[in-house]
Every structure is written in structure tokens, then in C-alpha cells.
Amino acid sequence: MTPRETALARLRRRESIDQAPGLAADLTAQGIGFAAVGGVLEERWRQAVVELDGCIGPLVEGGPAVLREGGPYPGSWIESTGSISAEVLARFAPEVAQSTFEQFATGQRDDGLIPYKVTADGTAFSQIQIVTPLARSVWHHYLLTGRDGLFLRRMFDAMVRNDAWLARHRDTLGTGGVEAFCTFDTGHDLSPRFWFAPDRCFGGEASRVDPESPVVPVVAPDLTANVACQRRYLALMAEELGEDGSAWSTRSDESYRALWSECWNAEDATFYDRDRDGEHVRVLSDVLLRVWASEAGEDEAFETSLRRHLMNTRGFLAHYGFTSLALSDPRFDHDFTRNSWGGPVNFLTQIRAPHAFERHGHHAELGLVSGRILEALARADRFPQCLDPWSGDAGYTSSYSPAILWLLDAVERWFGVLVRPDGEVWFSGLIPTRIEHGLAPTAVAASRAVGGDTFELAGDDAAVVLHRNGAEWASFPRGLRLVWMPAKEAFEMVNVSTGVVTGRVRLQGMSAIVTLRPNDRLSLSPEQSRASGPGVVTPRR
Predict the structure, then answer these.
(1) Would 329 be classed as within a structural domain?
(2) What is the mean pLDDT of the chain?
(3) In this structure, are residues 23 and 53 in contact, taking their beta carbons and an 8 Å threshold?
(4) Which residue among 206, 303, 498, 513 is least packed, with the fewest CB closer than 10 Å?
(5) pTM score
(6) How many distinct structural domains can be found in the chain?
């Protein structure tokens, strides 16, 4: 057998993961599996399943099983566990993900504030600590898991009350933006962004700002973008629940306008905090990527950010991921062995990044960076919070659920089967045969059930073959992604690699030679069409 056939055979044997009985059962129910020939990725994938299972359980006796942050964090945080991590987890353990979301509604204060964390000791309200828009994560979970109307109503009502709380307490300067009162409001531990600001809000209460602080409040672009995006998805939820969503759309537009008028710096092509004197706080941090992940602007502005900052090695592009502070900043923190947002690569940044890149069609750039992160995790002895940007060495902590979920997501996103909230199914062929240091497999195979059918993807350094219910269904060259839209029975090819790909695509009796540049998208329809895309932004030095 060829390595690709061997990988497929290994996949079909479905060796059990006895150390993770709960999560393994969820994966089996959804037909999820992964196998590799050579290298260490299959071992790391299985380790990820085991360690993720260890991050799942009740916070209190008799409570529902929820996702915990892992490592030194013994609970669930709204900036991560309760938003982006639960959103990813929904594809693997949907019931656990839903309970993780719901605990924040359960813990909501009478005045409307949602807790920033939930632990065995209860809820905490000393900061807001919001990053990924909760409403989008909830909406995606709702779409992916069968449209549970009771869940949507409960979460919608909670988020409406929280939005009102933010409007009452976090616009003291009257700009229409959302203000940070402390370092932990954005989770930016040790970042120069908040030097001389208190870690927590005044008196441990999120509605209060220290009157003696010389540096807060600031109009924060990431918080403002979060609320703007949040309101966009509250509009969708309102319509789904039979209400008028237009008021939420209007509020969303107002928040986005405040973001651009208060925080955008055209000269530097980035977003900065605006202080009480109306001046920009010129610290170039991962705030930029957070804002783009909150759906803040159009393609042209995003491409400018790519060239100036995100794909620039003087900006945020390190050899092993996106950094938390610009690499050219003399304040850059090189200590990746501690919880620092002052420089090191953080896995929360990496797991949030697809929302920014994919919205603007820049898949290839994200794939390039993800390949290096995959290599770092392949040789790591644990799942850390931080990586050394230069060596890729594992840094602070272990069994960190965002890092674990990043790996499980990456397998499906780049060389597996990924089901999307919008109904698309992605079959991706960026097979990891070219990661270095002797860690690369010669072939991989991955599977997932979709709509009652079992799909298996097997690929090597040359090509990818898809099977549907055991029969060959499609094939295409390595580096491409087949996008299936089941509702329309339509198909497209996307080049997710950073090189031009030429080769034969076979699908349901159709056979054609295609040539796609990076990020090109081509409709596989009977009518003649031309591939188009935004082009690719390669690393800038």
C-alpha cells in the first residue's frame, strides 16, 4: 500500500482512546478520527484528546460538565473558555460547549453584568475581560448544533442585559466607544499597553475606575470592536427569535463608527487606545488582530494591515506565530515562560486569528503561519499558553485548553473535514508533509460525519483523495481546499497554500485541470468561470 492508503487504513481501524472516555465517545458519535503515517502528529492528536478530556468536568459537585481553561486556571473565563474556545469545542463536544456558554448566563448579576470568570468559588466581577464577541460564538454554536431555540433565547436575553450594563458604565468620556478601566479588562497581563494602570478595576468592582489613575480610562479599540460585533449578531438573533433586529444593527454601526473615529490611526495604519486627553496611546499590540477578528473593516484596509503589521517581521509575524507586541518595540518581553502579553506568542491569539483572515479571503497567509505553529506543537512536550517566537519552544504552563483546541481545529481546518456555521463543508489539502525537524508525516487521513454520511480525507505530499461512505468521491492536488455547499450542491476550489498549484480535480464524474494562485477561488460549475482572489501577502522584512 502507498502511505496514503496506509493512513486511510489506520483511520478506519479507529483505535480507541481509553484515557478519554467522555470525549472519545463524542468524537466517535460524530465520526471524527485522525491518523498519520510517520512523524508524531497522530500521537499529538491523541494526546490532545486525552488532555482536553481532562479539561472537561463540573466546577461544582452535581453541576454540568463544562470546559475549564486548564493549566493554572481552574475555571472558565469569558474572554476564552466561554467564547472562542467553546465555539471550537462545539464541533467536538457540543453538549459541553453549550453548558460552558450557559454558566455565564446563570452567573449574571442582577444589574446585568456577566461574570468575567466562573470557578468552583463562584462568579467574579472585578473586570469585564472580553475579547471574542460572545454573541458570535453563541450564534455559531446555535447554527452548528441544531438550532436550540431555548438556548438562543436564554443567551440573547443575558447578552442584551450585559450590553445595557456596558452602555451605562463604560462610556464615561461620551465617545460612543467602550472604555478599559484596568489591565485585566482586556486580559493583557504584563503588556506595556497598560503600564501604570491598575490590574483590576477600582475596589474590585468592574463599574468603577480608579480616580487617581493617570492612564485610565481609555477608549479601547478591542472592547469597542467587540461590542460592535456583538450587536451585529444580536441583530441576527433578534430576527431569528421573531423580533425586529434593526435597532441592534443601528447600534452596531454606531459602535463601528466610534471605533474608526476614536481609535484608528491612519498614519500608522492601526488601532490605538485613546486616552482621556484625546491622544492615541502608541503601543502596537495584538489589539490590531483582535479588532479585525471582530469584523471591523473592509478588504482594502485589512490588506494594508497585513502588509504593514500582521505579515511583517517587524510587526507581529514571528517565525512561530503572531506575537502579542510588535517585534520592533524595544519593550518587547522575551520571557515566554510566564503569562505575558508583552511579546510572546499566545495560543489565544492563534485560535482567534481565523475570524480575521478568513473573512477577507486570506487563507494562504493563515495557513503559512499555522504550519509553523503546528511544527512547534509537534515537538513540544505539552500544550502551553505561550511559545518562544524565535525557537517555537513551549513556554508558560501546560494542559492549556486553547492550545489543545488550536491543534484539533488545525487538523480539520488544514488537512481534514471542517463543518462551518454557514453550512459550508471544507475538505482541506494543506497536508503537513513539509514541517521540519523530522516531525513530518508522509501521509495523513481524517474523517467526520456530515449529514448522515461519513467523509474520509487522505492525503500525501502530492494529492488528496476524498471518500464518501467508503467510496472514492473526489480528488485534487495538495495545497487546495474543496468547498462544498450542500444546500446548493455547489462546489468551489480554494488555494490555501502560498504557491501556485496546478493539477487535476476530479469530482462526481467531472475532471478538469486547474491552476490557482494563492487565495484564488474557483467555482466548479458547468459554466466557464475564472479563478479570482485577493492575492497573497508574503512575509515582509
Answers:
(1) no
(2) 98
(3) yes
(4) 513
(5) 0.98
(6) 1
